[in-house]
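Researcher: I'd like a candidate sequence for this fold, 704 residues long. If you have to choose between options at a position, lean toward the conservative one.
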């Protein structure tokens, strides 16, 4: 897509206010920025994007649920069969035909959302969950035996963790796997209806096997949740799934609010026997006589280590959510740059939507947040690659990766829904028409906020980590405000982003006199960093202090204290995610080579930082971090920045690299401008022969 921003003359000539006044207006080097945004694995992204322009992989909105499911399965067969480079998803062992970098693989994988979110999710179930469980929870022998079928799709599989009774609290699943030393088999059993495995992708129709999570019981002892490879259906002559195997039953979840190309369903097991060797035994094994051994003594730590090895699902959802935000915004901005309503600024020409302040307010901060989400995701991919390529695979790095993935997934998958809804409304009635894509994306992305960990539950995990680390820190070092602040900033940024730097803590940002100087202060990156980091530090410290009595309390009282602070915990986690994203954006600015682009992108970063502060203005005021005068400046300065960004809006969304065949939205294809040219020509002809339309005449009259 070419950069066709319509730049109103008044806005392009010079920057008209503030410290940038009289400087020549910068331009965005769209191609250069696009290249930077491809990130560390540009070939993979390019290749994945090229494939997304192939109609074979596109979502067909006219299909019934059953047809859509079959289409997506056929698309996956194409992905699995192609011998071309970059075709097998995820970094499988080289000896089995894989071998690419985990980060590169995921960077390509998450782009599948552009073709059809159902394809991304069904592929995620097959290769990111089912096969990944074998890869990460299995031994090398099990990988050699079970992975090839999962990789080439000759064994479509389900990942059976969730139960009707337990979704977020996976440690409490009720399915049992009881070892029988007589036959050297595990007996997989669903003891009651609430223990049915539920919502499983592939389970309704296509799966012939499943990786099933169950309580492992041997010699009368429950060793906690482990994963088992369980065949569930026959494979028919043409390689498709046939009838359920004896003892297995299931139900189809049927129509869903989105992702209709994925066959989600339930599975139940009635004393189904699997060989001892099909317990995926990397973290826990059972000998022939029933003796249990594990390299990790603590059942709790073992369980979280197992779950942690499956973190890539969260990482890829974060990337896909960022991509879907880009698609929605690119459509809304392109339409908003062409669509005209009311003759507000000129007596004869109607005003372009993006020239309305409210329209800029609705869309531009979201462009800024999408950039922040993008850059934070790049850092997450780096960390993911460090850990899973084995380069920096330490327990600390794994923990950092899990915390960062939880924080970013929870933030971006909530953000994308709000963004798509705003884009939908910003496009008026046209936004509601399916051919314009936004509602379809919204339906499909809706459940991203729930699966791979419900967002609220994930934020609690993040907060617990922050508070836990804070408590450890308090034991070891100074608890002075500056020490706490530095600690929290280190936690938020250093582990993932290798940055530090907090100058002040807990003080109001001093008033700088007149509003111009105040604005200058606010756009200073250090001021933004201080305000954002200070908020994280204060929230974590406050909640940690409030939770202290829980340490010595009985379990019921401890739970009550925790509950009383749950909202603050989640708030602290959100603030942490905000700081992560802001820091990633600020770090990325240093890589922008072109000066004009860097200037515009700095404004974009400022919009992100200052809208975060504006969003939490009450907190900053109540806690004395901003004066009322300064708080007022935040909003007026953001509005000025948004006006400055107006001429660059189309360039900023074009730089994401999605052209007409990615967007596939009629309203983003230039038809609106064509319609208006036609109308303009019509009115011009009428004016020429003196028969201007009544509306135009009466408008002029009413103005005079
Ligand atoms: C379309 C779809 C596909 C899926 N695919 C799979 C799959 O392939 N394999 C698989 O194993 N699972 C799958 N899932 C299950 C998914 O992972 C779970 O739905 C998810 O983990 C949430 O569990 P739940 O639905 O039981 O919700 P619950 O855990 O019941 O949560 C309901 C609400 O309660 C809140 N809540 C829960 N606990 C707490 C708490 N401690 N404190 C405060 N609030 C809380 C949550 O925030 C949430 O809003 C899928 C789900 C869907 C909808």
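Model: Candidate sequence:
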């Amino acid at each position: 897509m070419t950069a066709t921003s319509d730049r109103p003359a008044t806005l392009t000539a010079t920057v008209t206010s503030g410290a940038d006044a009289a400087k020549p207006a910068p331009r965005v080097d769209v191609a250069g920025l696009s290249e930077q945004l491809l990130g560390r694995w540009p070939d993979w992204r390019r290749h994945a994007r090229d494939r997304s322009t192939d109609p074979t992989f596109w979502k067909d909105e006219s299909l019934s649920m059953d047809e859509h499911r079959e289409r997506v399965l056929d698309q996956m067969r194409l992905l699995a069969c192609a011998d071309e480079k970059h075709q097998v998803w995820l970094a499988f062992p080289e000896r089995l035909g894989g071998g690419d970098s985990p980060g590169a693989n995921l960077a390509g994988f998450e782009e599948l959302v552009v073709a059809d979110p159902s394809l991304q999710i069904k592929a995620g179930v097959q290769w990111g969950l089912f096969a990944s469980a074998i890869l990460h929870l299995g031994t090398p022998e099990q990988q050699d035996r079970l992975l090839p079928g999962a990789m080439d799709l000759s064994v479509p599989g389900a990942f059976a963790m969730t139960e009707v009774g337990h979704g977020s609290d996976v440690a409490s699943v009720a399915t049992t796997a009881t070892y029988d030393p007589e036959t050297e088999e595990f007996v997989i059993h669903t003891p009651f209806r609430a223990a049915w495995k539920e919502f499983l992708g592939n389970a309704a129709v296509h799966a012939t096997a499943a990786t099933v999570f169950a309580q492992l019981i041997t010699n009368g002892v429950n060793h906690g949740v482990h994963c088992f490879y369980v065949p569930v259906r026959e494979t028919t002559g043409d390689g498709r799934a046939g009838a359920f195997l004896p003892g297995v039953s299931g139900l189809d979840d049927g129509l869903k609010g989105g992702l209709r190309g994925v066959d989600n369903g339930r599975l139940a097991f009635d004393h189904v026997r699997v060989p001892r060797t099909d317990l995926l035994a990397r973290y826990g094994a059972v000998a022939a006589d029933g003796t249990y051994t594990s390299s990790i003594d603590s059942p709790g730590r073992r369980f979280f280590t197992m779950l942690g090895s499956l973190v890539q699902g969260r990482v890829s959802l974060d990337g896909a959510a960022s991509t879907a935000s880009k698609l929605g915004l690119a459509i809304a901005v392109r339409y908003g740059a062409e669509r005209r309503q009311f003759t507000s600024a000129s007596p004869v020409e109607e005003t372009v939507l993006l020239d309305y302040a409210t329209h800029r307010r609705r869309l531009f901060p979201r462009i800024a947040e999408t950039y922040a989400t993008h850059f934070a995701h790049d850092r997450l991919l780096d960390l993911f690659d460090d850990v899973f390529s084995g380069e920096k695979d330490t327990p600390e790095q794994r923990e950092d990766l899990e915390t960062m993935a939880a924080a970013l997934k929870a933030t971006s998958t909530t953000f994308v829904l709000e963004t798509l809804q705003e884009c939908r409304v910003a496009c008026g009635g046209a936004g509601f028409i399916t051919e314009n894509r936004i509602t379809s994306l919204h339906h499909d992305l809706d459940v991203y906020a729930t699966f791979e960990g419900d967002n609220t539950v994930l934020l609690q995990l993040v907060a617990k980590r922050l508070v836990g680390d804070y408590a450890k820190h308090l034991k070891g070092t100074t608890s002075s405000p500056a020490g706490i602040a530095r600690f929290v900033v280190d936690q938020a940024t250093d582990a993932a982003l290798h940055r530090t730097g907090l100058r002040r803590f807990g003080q109001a940002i001093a008033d700088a006199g007149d509003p111009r100087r105040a604005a200058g202060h606010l756009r200073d990156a250090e001021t933004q960093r201080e305000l954002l980091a200070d908020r994280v530090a204060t929230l974590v410290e406050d909640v940690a202090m409030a939770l202290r009595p829980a340490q010595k309390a009985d379990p019921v009282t401890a739970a009550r204290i925790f509950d009383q602070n749950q909202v603050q915990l989640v708030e602290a986690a959100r603030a942490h995610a905000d700081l992560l994203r802001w820091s990633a954006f600020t770090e990325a600015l240093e890589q922008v080579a072109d000066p004009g682009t860097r200037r515009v992108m700095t404004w974009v970063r400022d919009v992100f930082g200052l809208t975060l502060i504006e969003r939490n203005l009450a907190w900053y005021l109540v806690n004395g971090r901003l004066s009322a005068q300064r708080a007022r400046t935040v909003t007026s300065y953001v509005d000025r920045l948004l006006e400055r960004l107006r001429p660059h809006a189309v360039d900023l969304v074009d730089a994401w690299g999605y052209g007409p065949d990615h967007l596939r939205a009629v309203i983003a294809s230039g038809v609106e401008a064509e319609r208006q040219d036609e109308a303009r020509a019509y009115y011009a002809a009428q004016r020429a022969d003196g028969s201007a339309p009544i509306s135009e005449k009466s408008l002029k009259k009413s103005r005079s």
